[in-house]
């Protein structure tokens, strides 16, 4: 996630990122907030939408840790999960070369 063209949201700003008839579940890498290089948003899960709000630019992630594969400013089990998932996928070209 990146903010475009130097835009910095206010704490009161809200951004609907998903709108649906029914929303169930949560993002695996952002159950209640999402942190990235420019700051942190709270994530509100409502019955019919998902909203980013309450932007804070501190604490922030000055740069992503080397092993932060999902770019949430943390190196944790979710990064290991991403690595294992990619490791198990065959990346050969052509794909018919995969076992």
Give the arrangement of secondary structure elements.
Blueprint: E1 14-19, E2 33-36, E3 39-45, E4 49-56, H1 77-88
Antiparallel strand pairs: 1-4, 2-3, 3-4
Model description:
By secondary structure, the protein is an alpha+beta fold. It has one domain. Helix content is 12%, strand content 25%. It has one helix at 77-88, and strands at 14-19, 33-36, 39-45, 49-56. It has a 4-stranded antiparallel beta sheet with strand order 1-4-3-2, with no helix packed on it. The longest helix is centred in the last third of the chain and has 12 residues, at 77-88. The N and C termini lie far apart (35 Å). The mean pLDDT is 83.
Summarize the structure.
12% of the residues lie in helices and 25% in strands. With 99 residues, it is of the alpha+beta class.
Which geometry do the CA atoms define? Answer: globular
Helix content: 10-25%
Report the strand count: 4
Order of helices and strands: EEEEH
Q: Biggest sheet, in brief?
A: 4 strands, antiparallel
């Amino acid at each position: 996630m990146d903010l475009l063209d130097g835009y910095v949201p206010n704490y009161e700003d809200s951004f609907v990122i998903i709108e649906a008839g029914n929303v169930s579940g949560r993002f695996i890498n952002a159950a209640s907030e999402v942190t990235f290089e420019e700051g942190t948003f709270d994530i509100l899960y409502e019955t019919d939408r998902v909203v980013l709000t309450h932007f804070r630019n501190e604490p922030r992630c000055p740069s992503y840790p080397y092993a932060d594969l999902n770019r949430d400013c943390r190196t944790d089990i979710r990064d290991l999960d991403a690595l294992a998932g990619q490791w198990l996928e065959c990346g050969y070209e052509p794909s018919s070369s995969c076992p």
